[in-house]
Design a protein that fits this description.
By secondary structure, the chain is of the alpha+beta class. It contains 10 helices and 7 strands. Strands 1-2-3-5-4 form a 5-stranded antiparallel sheet, covered by helices on one side. The protein has a two-stranded antiparallel sheet with strand order 6-7.
């Protein structure tokens, strides 16, 4: 028992159905009779964990649970273990990952990505404000619900099952979405502030991928492998495919602000995820209100107005949570 192929038995949950899998874990949908709700259960494949790793898993999962039900962050309800000892995270059940949608359908609609940027920015702002960093933001760790809203999952707990979780997690960042300092510095992340700057880069890389269907500097699977990707990451500027975005459009605002997230030097990126959200809305609203070239359209104005209302509500919520 304990292998990825073994039947899964989790006390308190029934109707388990595999809905996704990776090298380190499998995700099941399930039913929790006690609370009469459907949930997602992330089951890690390794059951041979020591007491220290088990303790760290429970501690980091508790941090995620403490974030509560916040826009842009997948709610963690609880943690438990399978009957054969594999760690399990019980989460809110949300649709497919952004990575799956990109693989199936290609680049996502601009309006969806714009709203998703606000969702993820607000969620990341709340997490960072609570001292929680992600460390591996990528399309596979973003879930998309039936309304097209984006939700960030897997905050720093993807390396459960190894002897030293913190070291493994640092080395387990997905190369295509890792910041340049990951490869150029002997001490790429010295403290939480450094990790937060890295999160902002990875957010930008994820949003670029959502808009374009591919990472901004390619991936290790491209010709030339990892070495060529690292050279592009360190040397090249961000290039957007296709014609220039219409002046004053949400796409232009997205591109401008994503480029700021993808600055090579951490201190050139926005100081916080909340600042990114504020600037994104400001640029988009200014472009539409300022007239642009007229191609933004009435639909742009309507969805920007709705987005502005959403962010105001998020800011109020974050303020209330901070006071508590």
């Amino acid at each position: 028992m304990g292998s990825a192929d073994a039947p899964v038995e989790i006390d308190g949950f029934t109707e388990l159905r595999l809905i996704g899998s990776g090298s380190a874990s499998q995700v099941y949908s399930g039913y929790q009779p006690l609370l009469d709700r459907r949930v997602a259960l992330k089951v890690f494949t390794n059951s041979t964990i020591d007491d220290a790793t088990r303790s760290r898993f429970e501690r980091e999962s508790a941090l995620m649970g403490a974030l509560g039900e916040v826009r842009g962050v997948v709610t963690v309800y609880a943690t438990t273990f399978t009957r054969d000892g594999r760690p399990v995270i019980v989460m809110r059940l949300i649709g497919q990952s952004l990575g799956e949608l990109l693989a199936e359908h290609g680049a996502r609609p601009v309006e969806e990505v714009f709203r998703g940027a606000l969702d993820l920015g607000a969620g990341l702002s709340h997490a960072h404000g609570s001292g929680v960093v992600h460390r591996d933001i990528k399309p596979e760790n973003v879930l998309v619900d039936e309304e097209g809203r984006y939700w960030l999952a897997d905050f720093g707990i993807a390396a459960v099952g190894v002897a030293d979780l913190s070291v493994q997690t640092q080395g387990a960042m997905t190369p295509a979405h890792a910041p340049p300092e990951r490869f150029t510095s002997s001490q790429p992340e010295r403290d939480v502030a450094d990790w937060m700057a890295g999160d902002l880069w990875s957010l930008g890389s994820t949003l670029y991928t959502a808009l374009c269907g591919r990472p901004p500097f390619g991936s290790p699977s491209d010709p030339g492998g990892m070495a060529a990707m690292m050279q592009r990451l360190i040397r090249d500027e961000v290039v957007w495919p296709g014609p220039p975005a219409p002046k004053g459009s949400p796409l232009q605002a997205l591109q401008f602000n994503v480029e700021e997230l993808l600055e090579k030097e951490p201190f050139h990126r926005p100081e916080s995820a909340q600042l990114f959200v504020t600037r994104l809305l400001h640029e988009a609203q200014s472009g539409v209100d300022g007239g642009g070239d007229g191609r933004g359209g009435v639909s742009d104005q309507r969805f920007l107005a709705a987005a502005l209302i959403l962010v105001v509500l998020v800011v109020v919520l974050l303020t209330v949570l901070a006071v508590r």
